Amino acid sequence: MTVVILTGASSGIGEATALRLGRPGMTLVLAARRVPELTAVAERVAANGGAAVTVPTDVRDPDQVTALIERARAVNGRIDALVNNAGVGTNPSVLVEDDSVDRAIAVNLRAPIRLMRAVIPIMEEQGAGGIVNIGSVAGEVGIGGVYSATKFGLRGMTDSVRRELAGTGVTVTLIEPGYIATPGNAHRTGLPGPEIVAAAVERALRRPRRRIIIPFKYRAAVLLSSTFPAITDRIYAGKAARRR
């Protein structure tokens, strides 16, 4: 039986990923703070023939992260995959309040690092395992203030960990979505659903890659930003200030 830890599993990309991965032979260990929503996702997984264990978790709390890892390992002694999906957004201005800065860093960057530190020794002992970190196109193109900073950091950490674990049997993939139809983007229309990210997670666990940018059109934006940063400067000049 394959055991997969999925954070941020109560809605949006996490919920879609749980429904995509939940199938016979796989046990999902679903983590999120909102218990009723988390329970509802687990029930939908079970209705589709999968198995799910719910572990109410605030990924900012080291003790709760430890309890999550222990509960996952109690299933059958293994942890086959970790999907670091939990994340929070911020106002794009640098003038955002300290508590918002601290929360974004704790959830978007420190928590994935802490979770990787917890599962990597287990996966190395097994000689196999997969880690998928959900980043963002905003981690390639600096337009999201503190949110971008955390996703830039996650990208650097993912690259470092992948290189550190080369040859161990443990794989590390970064998935970078653009705008997706999730509760945080309810004010936007015409966006692809979170299922597109869930499908990318499944692909990454089956055939690991270093990075997946979705939808495909955002690859052009990433290339433009890295090749001609002055153009990106002009496109986004003043936008964050207007959204304060």
How are the secondary structure elements laid out?
Elements: E1 2-7, H1 12-21, E2 26-32, H2 35-47, E3 51-56, H3 62-76, E4 81-84, H4 98-126, E5 129-134, H5 146-164, E6 170-177, H6 195-206, E7 211-214, H7 218-227, H8 229-236, H9 239-242
Parallel strand pairs: 1-2, 1-4, 2-3, 4-5, 5-6, 6-7
Helix pairs in contact: 1-6, 3-4, 4-5, 7-8
Descriptive overview:
The chain is globular and about 55 Å long. The protein has helices spanning 12-21, 35-47, 62-76, 98-126, 146-164, 195-206, 218-227, 229-236, 239-242, and strands spanning 2-7, 26-32, 51-56, 81-84, 129-134, 170-177, 211-214. The mean pLDDT is 94. Strands 3-2-1-4-5-6-7 form a 7-stranded parallel sheet, with helices on both faces. With 244 residues, the protein is of the alpha/beta class. The protein is 49% helix and 17% strand. It is built from 9 helices and 7 strands; from the N terminus they run E-H-E-H-E-H-E-H-E-H-E-H-E-H-H-H. The chain has one domain (2-242): NAD(P)-binding Rossmann-like Domain (Rossmann fold), CATH 3.40.50.720.
How many whole angstroms does the radius of gyration measure?
18 Å
Q: What characteristic shape results from the CA principal axes?
A: globular
Largest sheet: 7 strands, parallel
Low-confidence stretches: none
Q: From the coordinates shown, what is the CATH architecture?
A: 3-Layer(aba) Sandwich
Give keywords.
244 residues; alpha/beta; Rossmann fold; seven-stranded parallel sheet; globular
Please give a quick description of this structure:
This protein is α/β, with parallel strands linked by helices and 244 residues long. 49% of the residues lie in helices and 17% in strands.
